[in-house]
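re: that chain from earlier
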Amino acid sequence: MKFKVGFLGVTTLFVLVAAGPGSRSYAAAEQTWTGEITDATCGRSHLKMSQGLFSAPECVIACTEKVKFTFVTTEKIYEIANQDFAGLKEHPGEPIKLTGELQKDDQILVSKIDNSK
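^ sequence. v structure.
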């Protein structure tokens, strides 16, 4: 009987260690959204800032010299966690599909940008 209790205790300990908090993945799964890369100043519309003098892509590039890139969908505006992601400057102000992980505080960690329609 002692052997069974000891074995059960060791087995339980092993299972708890193997399935402990370190083995869980709390990172969100990758998702894909459709929208536009924009900037924190303009958000959905570039008309006020550009006063019609610049296109949306030109406005985003100009504004992101001082403020951060953001991503706009029909429902929400998200912050971009990795501001140095290469595709951000390649596709500003145009319809894209953005893939990444939604993190806390509505930030997206971008892993891929696809501008194909």
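Residues 28 and 103 are 7 Å apart (CA to CA).
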